[in-house]
Amino acid sequence: MSNIVAIVGRPNVGKSTLFNRLVQRRDAIVDAVSGVTRDRHYGKSNWNGKEFSVIDTGGYTVGSDDIFEEEIRKQVNLAIEEADIIVFVVDVEEGISPMDEEVAKLLRKVKKPIFMAVNKVDNSMRDANAVEFYNLGLGEYYTISSINGSGTGELLDAMVEEMTDIIEEETELPRFAVVGRPNAGKSSFINALIGEERNIVTDIAGTTRDTVDTKYNRFGFDFNLVDTAGIRKKSKVKEDLEFYSVMRAVKTIELCDVAILVLDATRGFEGQDENIFWLAEKNKKGIIILVNKWDLVEKETNTMRDFEAQIRREIAPFTDVPIIFISALTKQRIFKAIETAVEVYENRKKRITTSKLNDTMLEIIKHNPPPSNKGKFVKVKYCMQLPTPTPQFVFFSNLPQYVKDPYKRYVENKMREIFDFKGVPIVIYFRKK
Ligand SMILES: Nc1nc2c(ncn2[C@@H]2O[C@H](COP(=O)(O)OP(=O)(O)OP(=O)(O)O)[C@@H](O)[C@H]2O)c(=O)[nH]1
Ligand SMILES: Nc1nc2c(ncn2[C@@H]2O[C@H](COP(=O)(O)OP(=O)(O)OP(=O)(O)O)[C@@H](O)[C@H]2O)c(=O)[nH]1
Q1: Relative to the alpha carbon of 291, which ligand is closest?
Q2: Does residue 327 sit in the same domain as residue 191?
C-alpha cells in the first residue's frame, strides 16, 4: 500500500512552493536531527495521522521551452500511471493556458483521485477569478495560496480522505528493494543474485497493490524482491526520465523492509544517491549500500577505506550502515551483500526487553544525564521499546522538553553501540511522566 502524491502542472504555477508547504513540517524535523540538506523534489509528510510521499514533477524539466511541453506530457502520463493521487496546479494570475488544457485532457480520463489546485489565490478578491477553471472539465477545485498557506489545509484534508492507512504488512520473508540511480548496476546485481530468473519460486501478485513481489531462495536465504518486474520491464520511453527512476525508488522503498542502495564506484556517492538514501531513512527502512563496479576501480592502498570514509561523512550521523564493495559483473561479494541485507532485516525486527533496556540505558543516563536547563534537572524514570514495525523507543522523564537533539543523538549512539542496529533507522522520543 502506498500513498504517493504527484504534483503536476506547467512551469511557474507554484508547484515547488506547494511542495515545500506540503512536506515542510515533517522535513523540518528530519533536517534538524540529521543536518541533511533538503532534497527539493520528493519528501515524506503526514497530515491527520496519514503518511504520504510527495513528488514535485516540476524540478525535472530541463532544456529549452519547446521541449517543455513534451516533457510535461510525459510526466503527467507517468504520474497517472504510478502515483496514487494527483494534484494539478494551475495559476489564477495567468488564467487557463493551452498547456493547462492539454494536461486537463489527459487527467479527465483518469480514475485516480485528482485535485485541481488553483494557486496564487492570495486574497478573497481572487476567488472570483478562479471560476474560469471549471472550464477545464475536472469539476471542483481548491483555491489555495502556496505562498501564505491559505486553503492548503482544506486541500490536505480532502487529499487524506483518499489515502489509506499505511500499515506495514507482516510478511514471513524479508522484502528487499534494489534502488539506485540509472546505470548504477541494479539489474546486473539482481541478475548476479538470482541468475536471469531461473530461480523464481513463486510470483505473488499483490492483491491490494500494483506491484509484484517475487520470492527467491539464494545462498540459503529466502527473501522477496519488491517489484523487480517493474524494474526490468520498463520501456525505452521511461528509461531516460529521471522522474521515472525517482518514482520507482519512492514506490519500492515504501514497500520494502530493507533498501539495497546500489552505487556506481566510478562515480562516487552523489546527490541522487544521497536523496535515495535519505528517502529510505525517512521511511525508516533498513539500508545497505553496495558500491558496485568495484572491478573498475584502480586499487591502491586505502582506496576502499577512503571511499567508505567519504560515504560515512555524507550519511552522518546515521553512520552505522553496512557498506559493501561488490562487482555485479564478476559476482564478487554477492553472497556477502545478501547475507548483510538479511542481517539488517533482523536488526530492524529486533525487540529489546524493557528490563534489559532499563538496566543498560538508565545506568548510562545516570552517569551522563541531559544538561540541566535554567537550574532544573531532567530525570529519566524509565524507558521502553514501542510495538512498532521499526525500532522506536520512548524515555519517560519529568522535563522532556529540556532534552535537546545532541543528547538524543548521544542516547541513540549508545543504543547503537550496545544493541547493534546496524543499517536501521531508530527513533527516540522523550515523553512526560
Ligand atoms: N502570489 C503568489 N505567488 C506564488 C504562489 N505560489 C508560488 N508563487 C510564485 O510563483 C513563482 C513560481 O513558483 P514555483 O513554485 O517555482 O513554480 P513551479 O511550478 O514549481 O515552477 P517550475 O519549477 O518551473 O515547474 C515563484 O515566483 C513563486 O514565488 C502563491 O500562492 N501566490
Ligand atoms: N565493470 C562493471 N560493469 C558493470 C557492473 N555492474 C553493471 N555494470 C554495467 O553497467 C551498466 C548498467 O548496468 P545495469 O544493471 O543496466 O544498471 P541499472 O542500475 O539497472 O540501470 P537502469 O536500468 O538504467 O536503472 C551495464 O553496461 C552493465 O554491464 C560491474 O560490477 N562492473
Answers
A1: 2
A2: yes
Each residue of 191-213: pLDDT tens digit? 888 875 543 434 443 333 345 56
Q: Is the CB of 181 under 6 A from ligand 2?
A: no
Closest Cα partner for 84 from 6, 175, 11?
6
Q: Verify that 89 and 189 share a domain, yes or no.
A: no
- Arithmetic mean of pLDDT over the chain: 83
CB 215 within 8 Å of CB 226: no
Shortest CA distance to 295 belongs to which of 338, 334, 263, 266? 266
pLDDT in tens, 138-159: 999 999 999 999 999 999 999 9
Residue 167 lies in a domain: no
Q: Does the residue 16 lie in any domain?
A: yes
Q: Which residues line ligand 1 (CB under 6 A)?
A: 9, 11-17, 58-59, 119-120, 122, 145-147
Look at residue 111 and tell me if it is in a domain: yes
Question: Where in the sequence is the domain holding 381, given as residue range(s)?
Answer: 354-432
CATH of the domain at 22: 3.40.50.300
Ligand 2 in reach of 58 Cβ (< 6 A): no
74 CA from centroid of ligand 2 (Å): 25
- Quick one: 232 and 255 in the same domain? yes
Instruction: Please indicate, yes or no, whether the overall pTM of this predicted structure exceeds 0.90.
Output: no
Q: Check pocket membership of 182 for ligand 2, CB cut-off 6 A.
A: yes
Given the cut 0.95, state whether the ipTM is greater than it.
no
Grid cell 536501521 in the structure block, residue: 424
Task: State whether 142 and 279 are in the same domain.
Answer: no
Cβ count within 10 A of residue 46: 16
Query: 278: which 3 cell numbers?
Result: 535519505
